[in-house]
Amino acid sequence: MRGGAGAVNRGVNRIAPTVRGVLLDASPGRGRITLTIASDKGLQRATVRASYRLHLTPAKASAHELAQGLQQDWLEAWVEEWLKPPWYHERAEIVVVESPDPRILAEAARGLEGLGVARRVNTYPGPLAEALWRYKLPPGYPVEAGDGSARLLEEPWSGWRPPPPLRVAHVTAWSWHGPATLLETPRYYTVECNGEIWKTEASGEVLDLLRECTPHIVVARPEDRAHLPPFREGRWLWFDPTANLVSPRGLLEWMRVSWLPYTIAHGAPIGKILTAAEARRAYRRRLIIDPQTPRHERFRPLQGLIAHDMAGASRIPRPGLYWGVVQLDFTSLYPSLISLHNISAETVDNPYCNGTNPAPDYASHKVCQSPRGLVAEVLRELVERRAQAKRAGDKEASEALKWILVSGFGYLGYRNSLFGSIAAYETVTALARQALSAAERVAESVGYRLVHSIVDSIFVQKVDPEAPPPERLAQMIHSKVGVPLKVEAEYTWLYIPPTLRGEGAVNKYYGALKDGGVKMKGIMAVRSDTPPIIKGAQTAAIRSLAKARSPTQWPLTLKEACERIDNYKEIIATGRAPPRSLVIEKRLNPEAQRSTPWRRAAGQAPVQPPKVRYIIAPRGKPHPVWRGPPQAYDTSYYLKLLQAAARELPQCPPATLNTSRQETPPNPLPLLL
Amino acid sequence: MGRTAKPTRVLVAAELERLHRLARHLRDPEDRRRLEKLLEEADRVLEAYRYQPMSDPLEPLLIAMILGLARRVEELERGCGCR
């Protein structure tokens, strides 16, 4: 009983001239959607006539009675058959209501829900996104609009194509210690656009420079924008790097995957991006998404709950130095397992199908192999898309997809997840433990010794000269587990520092790579709250160690590394460290109560910032950077930090300490200046 | 949803602490030393419980002590050439 809604849907405002470019943003309006398109000329807008829909499940009357009762001048309503949650094994009738005015639709829904006549379903991510799905207008893709139609110029999901190029400008306000905080007047600004960098002290000039280079997106922190003159032109879209996990290009990839317009995708948590992609798939398969439908866990004794509430496996490594280590990583382990074993909320422990247990030694859940699970299907496409992006060398898109894949597993076990289920979550962790264990056994059976393993990585040493090369080992594990692996790193040596308890930490190691360079994980040199001078000291020492290509060279390089630390010790102790190399940055936890240097530093500011940057001044007093550079710093505090960094290095031979400073050239402080 | 069970390490640490207290109450100082030494083996098996659940927090400690004894028996056997 669909009425004239289709006619309304397909009409498009005729506007001239035609706008061709990347669809970035969309906003709803009465009878229309306004599209923001990144074209050669900058940002341009086009209007497409549109209607909006909502989906109702009847509560008191039949679906047909409800649909008839809703027919009005501004509303069309009809009945459709969709699949019913939570197991999607039978159909149910729902009422689809359509109107050109989103406000009328929202009021109608509120009224019906208030009377208890009907309840909204498939509400996520909202009427605008649903309209974009229906009109086939995915954000992030090239479109042509304005000549009687809005036409998509590239088929989404039709093999990997790099996101179309966008003009992205960067604005940064600078102070004495680096990027300015909200409480400081910046010393100068830099504007980076079209491959050129301008420097200016006048904030008004920043906007002039931007107008000149007509970017589509301008990257600037709130601190950078705070001192600019008021600006209300819609010439570009702002991108806040502190609110987004990914770069602007990464965000574009998120938009392409989720079909969310820029305004909704910007600053959104990853779960929103993933859930939007899943919701669209559910919509296409006509699956009813009703947050109120309970998905009960089957009964099991308390001991069973404790036994299966387990995370991915990891070993507690023995600290020390290991020569000739290979690190093999599963490629997107969790999403690949979800896809491979068809794991989704509706496929695990489904009472209407005879499933099988994919990890009988690790969990007790059964999984249906048919039909394809919603989460499994979406993640399979994302895994494939990421592999294509990687093959094409598109690091930003690959990184953006990686974040979504990571959240794909986490969201299965998240209490507010629309597509989550604890049984599905437990099955994935069980499969991951099974996969890691299998990888370890295969490596050991062909002549490798296990050094360490963490969730989806194993670190092994070749002990049998006849053992296959790492690439072959990766293939052998792949054929056993079903998930591909890559040789993530080949280390000349790998060092696992001891913790205070004397064990190794699960995710703290570093090593010299066979093909040059070093890889560092979890140590002070790569932690965001380590001041640059300590990062510099530890990095310099590890770079010295990395010169050792064989055990015989180790004592010499260790001596040099210890001398590096000694040099930094002297610089800090004599008060010669440049102030900006001492700045510590901490993110504040608003719920924390304990008195810490960073909370004391933040307490001096008139407004509470999300992050605080400070230096420890004499007598341990935190000195926030917005007060300007301090007269002096607390040498003992920074020496203690240096000592902590030195503890993560192999122990220095006693003879080298404080004896050979003259042998080493003055330290260039490479990371500081 | 969400974690409700205490991590293995926390449960075993509490059990280990209880057994250390027990060791202090043993009459024979040599027995005290022996039990303390056997308890030192715990770390060697704990990581296996990141793959498989434990039935009881005491289980990893018992397995660690049994393995420690078995290792020493093997060393003795090798030393005396009895194997």
Strand proportion of chain A: 15-25%
| Range of helix content of chain A | 25-40%
Unreliable sequence segments of chain B:
none
Q: How many DSSP-defined strands of chain A?
A: 24
**CATH top level of the domain at 302-511 in chain A?**
Alpha Beta
Indicate the percent of residues in helices of chain B.
55-70%
Q: How would you name the CATH homologous superfamily of the domain at 302-511 in chain A?
A: B family DNA polymerase, palm domain
| Global mean pLDDT of chain A | 90
- Total count of helical runs of at least 4 residues of chain B: 4
The tally of beta strands of chain B, per DSSP, is 0
Tell me the number of helical segments of chain A per DSSP (H or I, 4 or more residues long): 19
Query: Over all CA atoms, what is the radius of gyration of chain B?
Result: 15 Å
> In oligomeric terms, what are we looking at?
heterodimer
Net shape of chain A: globular
What's the quick description here?
The complex is a heterodimer of chains A (673) and B (83). Chain A has 673 residues and is of the alpha+beta class.
List the helices and strands and how they pair.
The complex is a heterodimer of chains A (673) and B (83).
Chain A: H1 5-10, E1 14-29, E2 32-39, E3 42-49, E4 52-58, H2 63-70, E5 76-83, E6 91-99, H3 102-115, E7 118-121, H4 127-134, E8 142-147, E9 150-152, E10 168-175, E11 178-179, E12 188-193, E13 196-200, H5 203-213, E14 217-219, H6 222-225, E15 237-239, H7 248-258, H8 262-265, H9 270-284, H10 302-308, E16 320-330, H11 333-340, H12 374-391, H13 395-410, H14 422-445, E17 448-454, E18 457-462, H15 470-481, E19 485-496, E20 509-513, E21 518-521, H16 532-545, H17 554-573, E22 584-587, H18 597-603, E23 611-617, E24 621-624, H19 635-647
Parallel strand pairs in A: 10-14, 14-15
Antiparallel strand pairs in A: 1-2, 1-8, 2-3, 4-6, 4-7, 5-6, 8-9, 10-11, 10-12, 12-13, 16-18, 16-19, 17-18, 19-20, 20-21, 22-23, 23-24
Chain B: H1 8-24, H2 29-39, H3 42-46, H4 58-80
Helix pairs in contact in B: 1-2
